[in-house]
Amino acid sequence: MDSSLFQEERKQQKNNFAELQLKKEDFITDRFNKMDVLNRLKNAVTSVIPGNPLARDFDIHGQVASTGPGLLWKIFSAVKKSTKEEAAVFYFEKKVLDKYHKRDKEVIIESLRKGVQQLTKLRHPRILSVIHPLEETREALAFATEPVFSSLANVLGSCDNLSGGSKILSEFQLYEVEIKHGLLQILEGLGFLHNDAKMLHRNICPSSIVLAKFGTWKLAGCEFVQQAGDSQDQKAFFTCHEWRSDMPRDAQPNLDYMAPEYELNHTCSPASDMFSFGILMYALYNNGRPLYECEGELRTFRQNAEELGSMRNSLLSKMPSQLAGHVKLLLNLEPTIRPDAAQMMKIPFFEDMACIALQYIDSLYQRENIEKSNFFKGLPKIIECLPKRVSQQRVLPALFKEGVNANMVPFILPSIFLISEQSTTEEYKEMVLPELIPFFKIREPIQVMLMFLQNMSLLLSKTPAQQIQTYVFPLIFAALEADSPQIQSTDGVSMQELCLSIIPTFADLIEYTTLKKSMIPRIKKLCLGTSVLNVRVNCLLCIGKLMDQMDKWFVLDEILPFLREIPSREPAVLMSILGIHKVALSEPKLGITKDVMANKVLPFLIPLCIDNNLNLNQFNAYMGVVKEMLSKVETEHRTKLEQLDQIQQEHKTLEISKIVGENGSFGKQGEGKTFMDKFWSNIGFGGGGGGESTKVNASSTPEVNSGVNVTPKKTTLSLEEKQKLAKQQEQEKALKSQPPLAPQSKTPSTSKPSSVTPSSGPRDLTSTLMESNMRNLSMSSKSSSGSNIGSPAGTPMSTSGGANWPGATGMGGGVNWASASSPNSHYMTPQSSLSSSNTSFPSAEKPKVDLSSFDTLLTTPSSAKKVPVNQMGQTTGMWTASQPGMTPRPSLGMTGAGGMSNSQGWGQNTMPSYQQPTFGAFTASPSTNQSWGGGGIRPMSGVMQSMHASQQNSAASKSLTSDDLKDLLG
């Protein structure tokens, strides 16, 4: 029983132990997880805030200064993340105090904490403003204030705890006006502490004064500030804290600037701060070194304090004479003799116009608008006397603050423009332009735009092109569209005139799209809508000056047509219009086209030439431009026509068939031309030649294009055309190289003597020749078809010399003829017998032709019997085959009108040349014995004629013909 109980109890204990083990493991696991979370959080915070507790709220940049006791505080420029405002972060690393004992280290850190706490409580324009309270970590202390440029100690050359120093501080020098104004600001701060806050600063020295971003001097370093104790009387009572040698120097006030009563009498008062202020004034004029240097030794301080009772004036020789006497009062051993802050502010040393102006700027927020406006009117004169850095740091920020009130902008802009002119381009971009941009958008009061226009050259020279496009151009457009042309500048120029005069000065900055779509349309609208003559003339002058930024077609389409819409005709307007046309005519890239000048410009300008408002010089100017345009139209159009004429001549060379006949000979030229023919030929119209009547070729007139430039079309020849052209040119050259045709006298043949007796009296040669030709024609038509010529059994005729006659159509072979036996003979005798070859003719009998209508054209001698033409044809033929060995009689060669010839060409035997009569549509060919080949056009009065069968008729015909030729040939 006991055993079972014991076992159950033992089992229960085991279970309890197991539960305890589980709880312990859970606890360890939970603790481990919590530690892990804390470690992760710590790592995350450390990565975000690398030693500076303000890194989560500010973007911290580089170090700019150091300040405080022993310059322990590092000052960094920063930007607040939430508001993007500039700030300064004061940072103190505790590890720099590792050289001190732990107790001394704690004393120093405690004094630094106290100083930040006191500074946070104090609110005054001359005391540094805290914007973020003190934060402390194991490694550092940090707080944030308004932006700080540097500390006075750094400016005077003490750069302890300043990493690498600063190039700006090394080149920084305080101007006299800065010192005066800075001392005034410190006096204001001391007056606030002494009279309002009932406090003593106890450490007035360069390390306790900082220079804000805009150059103002402000009190800081409140580590040793002492509050006045309770007192029943009105005079404040302050407990004196002795300077102890057993405490670290950084935990006590600067011994070099401390008043002697702290050690001599163990008392302190506001006069003690005034003594420190006197030493500060001395150090400013002594390269930052105080009157005495104690080096932290209290004994040395006592010795120096005793020497102050008999201080020589020579010690103050470096100070301005106006200030030396007052400094000596401040350094008196008797505190009651020292002047207070209010008294020091009234000394003559601070009665400087520049110093007073800076002091007035500090109190602008307390002034009325009327007072401010009066002050700003005279401010530019003061700015001219101020150093550039002082104007930029002290004056410019105050002016921009006043720009919140639009009514004050016209009063502050002159001073802003003056400071901008003194600044470099980089300084302007950094300090002026960002604050000036909101002013570009102000439209009321209208004087704002006027002042911007007056200073536009300054703005354009220093403002980047992108900002000009974004902010300046809208201001220009607004000025052009303003409804207040009566607003004028000080020199009497209206705002719109001023705007129009400055636009061309930055024409190269205007984009073409802006010029075309925004600028020019507004100028045109203003020119047409204004009633002020000066504004209209300035609009035209502005357009003329902007034309070099335009292209040709914009000028032709937009500018020149606009000029015809201008309603007024004052001389200034007319001459401005002429100037625009002159620029468009003279500018190479614009160049008014010939068609525009002829059709639009000249018809517009010529009536303006005779306007009654123009004087002699203006009229001459108009006529000069008009004549120049007319000359240009003439030159360009003549050049075009010459080009077209050249193309036409090139085409004519390709048509040699019109100049050279198909037989290789030149066509006949007319003996003479009338005056009308010469006129039409000179002006480019073709005329017929060679006896034909003149014909006007309408297609030869050049076709004038309406475009500006005339570009001749180039003719591209095919290979076959080029070969044909070359062949024709060679043929033409060969024909030109032949000697000219001349009459040749040959020895008369003895076989057939000629006995021609010239008839007495005049003879009708035309009738005689026509009668002879008609007889021959009649005989040719009667010749037997298919018979052999001059040989039995159709044997063809041949000669040993003479011209060769290829086989003609309908003939089986050729016939060779010898030269005539006599130049005056009408008949030709073969030199040799006919060859054995046959000459065949068509066997079909040709139909008879009724030629009775030619009877009236025939004339015969009175002794002869008139024979009808039809009767002639009944007894004659081409050849008379009944007489063997007959002499063939060829007729005179005939060619068609216009020089028509056989396509196969002619063989020639030269005979005396003579003028031949015309019969019907046929003309006798030149005096050449010719033969032709088949396949061509057979002449109607053939090359050969048969002899007449009748001896009487033959004799009479021979006699008549010989007489006729003799008369013709002389």
UniProtKB/TrEMBL annotation:
Residues 694-716, 822-831, 943-956 have a biased composition (Polar residues). Residues 745-760, 772-791, 832-843 have a biased composition (Low complexity). Belongs to the protein kinase superfamily. Residues 61-350 form the Protein kinase domain. This is SCY1-like protein 2. Pfam families: Pkinase. GO terms for molecular function: ATP binding; protein kinase activity. The lineage of its organism: Eukaryota, Metazoa, Spiralia, Lophotrochozoa, Mollusca. Residues 691-808, 822-848, 927-970 are annotated as: Disordered. Gene3D superfamilies: Leucine-rich Repeat Variant, Phosphorylase Kinase, domain 1, Transferase(Phosphotransferase) domain 1. Residues 719-735, 961-970 have a biased composition (Basic and acidic residues).
